[in-house]
Design goal:
alpha/beta; 8-stranded mixed sheet; 8 strands; globular
Length: about 290
């Protein structure tokens, strides 16, 4: 197979291999979502982080669907969901939208609460929905979450502080920047097809400004609003962390687990920030055992 043939085949694959076939009109725009597994199985909701999408959960979602009803979604401004210039895609907005989706999916009220698995800033979204908006979970797994200060790497802060400048980059230069940024998560190097699949939603007329918009709208105050309340987290909690995470130090794992009553801690050796890609089998086993 030539390089051109491989590239063409991959382009076809990434557009069809992960299809969010349903939509919901949220307060921050259209959200694309999907569900897997038997309708009457115990529900689990997976939350992605930034600058990713539900695509990073594809393998874990299909594995968990053997025993669970698994819900996945792209947050407003991410992946296949709506991206627009005046959109609120802050952590505050995502927490509200998550609450809306739980209502839409019928996952509220006694006996209907889902288990929640949240990665990166999805962890902050899940914690905000629980602590500020009353969302109730059967269990909560936090995977390399954004939950403690400081907020964001030096590069993240640079992009957010000069979003209007970076939005003007030539498309090829922007793509290269996003690719290298995503590749800096630590752990094993991503497969080239996965790497490009994670970059693609941030390119083009709507994707490029959306990449810098979501960074510019987020800052540490969204963590500050909830950090002092982690002792109030009520469901059983599992904290998973890749030991080679280059974005959020594994030192945060012990601190976060100590702040949440009864939280269990599971370190995944050799995995970087994208544990789903670096150690999918080990992460799935840890989650399966915790979810029951």
């Amino acid at each position: 197979m030539t390089g051109t043939e491989w590239k063409t085949g991959w382009k076809t694959d990434w557009k069809t291999e992960w299809d969010l076939d349903r939509s919901y009109l949220s307060s921050s725009g259209e959200v694309r979502w999907a569900a897997f597994g038997a309708p009457d199985a115990p529900p689990v909701v997976l939350l992605h982080g930034t600058p990713f999408s539900s695509y990073v959960w594809r393998g874990v979602a299909r594995a968990l669907a053997d025993r669970h009803r698994v819900f996945v979604w792209d947050m407003p401004g991410y992946g296949a969901s709506e991206k627009r210039a005046d959109q609120d895609v802050s952590l505050a907005a995502q927490g509200r939208v998550f609450g809306e989706l739980l209502e839409e999916w019928g996952l509220t009220g006694d006996g209907a609460e889902p288990a929640v698995v949240a990665h990166d800033f999805g962890g902050c979204v899940a914690l905000r929905a629980h602590l500020l908006h009353g969302a109730r979970y059967r269990r909560l797994a936090l995977v390399d979450p954004v939950a403690l200060p400081p907020f964001g790497s030096a590069a993240y802060q640079l992009f957010g502080g000069h979003a209007e400048v970076f939005e003007q980059l030539p498309p090829a230069l922007h793509r290269a920047l996003v690719r290298e940024y995503i590749g800096s998560t630590g752990g094993p190097e991503l497969h080239p097809a996965v790497w490009e699949r994670l970059v693609e939603p941030w390119c083009g007329e709507s994707g490029q400004p959306a990449f810098y918009r979501q960074i510019a709208q987020n800052d540490q105050r969204f963590i500050d609003e909830i950090e002092g309340r982690y002792g109030e987290v009520s469901p059983p909690v599992l904290v998973c962390w890749g030991t080679e995470d280059a974005w959020i130090s594994v030192a945060h794992a012990d601190e976060l687990a100590a702040r949440i009553p009864g939280a269990r801690l599971r370190l995944i050796e050799g995995a970087g920030h994208l544990v789903q890609e670096d150690a999918p089998a080990e992460l799935t086993a840890a989650l399966g055992g915790f979810l029951g």
